[in-house]
Amino acid sequence: MKLNNRLTHQVTRQRQANNSLPTQTSLTYSSSRARGDKTNQKTPNRVSINQKFKRYSVFLGLIIVIILFIKLFGLSTAPNVSLVASSNNNAIVTSKGIGVYKQAIESYLSGSLWNQTKLTISTSNLDNYITSKYPEIASASASVPFLGSHISVVLTPTVPNLIMLEPNGVFVLDQSGRVISEANSLASIKLNLPVVTDQSGLSLSLGKLALSSNNIYFIEEVVGQLEAKGYKIASLTLPGSSAELDVRLVGQPYYIKFNLNNNDPRLQAGTFLAVISHLKSQNITPTQYVDVRVDGRAYYK
After folding, report:
1. What average pLDDT does range 295-299 have in this prediction?
2. According to the 3-state scheme, what is the secondary structure of 237-253?
3. Which of these, 86, 160, 187, 224, has the minimum number of CB atoms within 10 Å of its CB?
4. How far apart are CA 93 and CA 62, in angstroms?
5. Which helix (H) or strand (E) holds 75?
6. Which has the closest alpha carbon to 269: 209, 230, 226?
7. pLDDT (tens digit per residue) in 169-180
């Protein structure tokens, strides 16, 4: 009886032990799955945050690069403009004011993004733009600064040589005979230059040739030769007849006819001086003209 009770008790304990094993395994597996689910839920969030951070970093770095590029290589559209100092040359330029040229350069720089960086701007194109737009500017020299963002432009005025009076205005010519400036009246052009009245019907316009460089040289040389001998010029005229220059002297009743196409103005001026000296020695004064258009000869009336 006691043996049976013992056997029954052992069998019962063994069954209880066996029944407890599946339960623990199941709990352990469930617990592992629960922990695994939590881990898998947190990983995507961390990856998403890292990706966003990398994107923001690249974007911020790009902005910094652009800012540094603009600081190092960007050019302002407000230039520094200066003028080469000289005496008679600056009269036309200063009458307009340096602001006119500065505004033109600002407009040029603002016209294209290529003109607003040190790496892409063409200073030679800018120089050509200024000299072609303003004939009174002989040359423009633009320079890009190594440090800073304001381009510097130095302007050299064209040397004026002659003033020409036309029915439609007053024009200033340079050594090549090109019109470099125009005005409504002679008083508005404050230049101490020979003044020629045109009666030949020339068509003058800004930036275009009015006379040849030889004509300019001839007129200047004749004026210089006569003034060197004490004669004052009353007027210089290009009459309707071709290739003629008429010079009237202060206090004299006659005028002098020169051949403008002659290549030796000194010879013609010298012929006049010799003839008038000879006539004075004989108390003769021409009343109308002295003609020295033919080399080595002179006619008077």
Report:
1. 88
2. EECCCCCEEEEEECCCC
3. 187
4. 46
5. none
6. 226
7. 899 999 999 999
> What radius of gyration, in Å, describes the C-alpha atoms of the chain?
48
Which residue in this structure is represented by tokens 């000299």?
131
Helix pair 265-281, 213-228: axis angle to 10 deg: 30
d(CA 235, CA 249): 7
What angle, 0 to 180 degrees and rounded to 10, lies between the N-to-C axes of helices 98-110 and 123-133?
Answer: 130
Phi first, then psi, for residue 157 (nearest 5°) are -70, 150
Token pair recorded at residue 99: 């602001």
Distance CA 155, CA 108 (A): 16
Residue 266, CA distances (Å) to 129, 135, 197, 217, 219 in order: 39, 30, 22, 11, 10
Give the strand order in the sheet containing 179-183. 179-183, 169-174, 160-166, 195-198, 233-238, 244-249, 255-259, 289-291, 299-300
Identity (one letter) of the amino acid at 228? A
pTM of the predicted model over 0.85: no
